């Protein structure tokens, strides 16, 4: 039996708007709660601390930066609305993970070797925390943004 399109769902989609502050708040709260709960349940104090700092903080910053870039003053770039949603998401995730990975390496390796900042186990976590958080935040924000811009066209 073919799926029928519900007219009510189309109007709900059309009325949805991309609100950046809500996306950033969600990008912070969701990983903070999930990783924090996992850290508490498993007894990993470092994960519980990282949940509210490097994991959720990175996610919120990336969500903000990607959201601002996608909105670009309220007018999306034409190519961001023309290419398939999956391709746009993949391109932005690759870029965000690359930048976050370089930043994680810089903080974990270069910084202790060239400054007075001592090496610490939490610095090593950044090599994983930053790229994973960036990938998740970029994926979610891009998909949510694209679903609202597609309905506005």
Summary, kept brief:
82% of the residues lie in helices and 0% in strands. The protein is mostly helical and 153 residues long.
List keywords for this structure.
mainly alpha; 6 helices; 153 residues; 0% strand
- Principal-axes geometry comes out as globular
Which sheet architecture does the biggest sheet show?
none
Number of domains: 1
Please give the number of β-strands.
Answer: 0
Quote the distance from N terminus to C terminus.
29 Å
Mean pLDDT: 86
Secondary-structure-derived class: mainly alpha
Strand content: under 5%
Uncertain regions: pLDDT < 50 for 5+ in a row? none
Summarize the SSE layout with pairings.
Blueprint: H1 7-15, H2 20-42, H3 45-71, H4 78-82, H5 85-114, H6 121-152
Helix pairs in contact: 1-6, 2-3, 3-6, 5-6
Describe the structure in your own words:
- The chain is an all-alpha fold and 153 residues long.
- The chain has one domain (19-152).
- Helix content is 82%, strand content 0%.
- The protein is built from six helices and no strands.
- The radius of gyration is 18 Å and the shape is globular.
- The two termini are 29 Å apart.
- The mean pLDDT is 86.
């Amino acid at each position: 039996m073919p799926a029928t399109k519900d007219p009510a769902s189309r109007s709900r989609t059309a009325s949805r708007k991309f609100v950046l502050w809500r996306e950033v708040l969600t990008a912070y709260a969701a990983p903070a709660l999930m990783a924090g709960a996992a850290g508490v349940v498993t007894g990993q104090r470092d994960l519980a601390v990282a949940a509210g700092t490097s994991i959720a903080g990175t996610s919120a910053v990336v969500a903000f930066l990607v959201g601002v870039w996608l909105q670009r003053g309220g007018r999306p770039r034409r190519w961001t609305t023309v290419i398939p949603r999956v391709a746009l998401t993949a391109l932005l995730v690759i870029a965000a993970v690359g930048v976050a990975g370089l930043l994680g390496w810089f903080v974990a390796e270069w910084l202790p070797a060239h400054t007075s900042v001592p090496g610490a186990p939490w610095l090593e976590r950044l090599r994983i925390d930053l790229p994973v958080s960036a990938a998740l935040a970029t994926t979610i924000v891009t998909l949510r943004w694209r679903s609202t811009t597609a309905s506005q066209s």
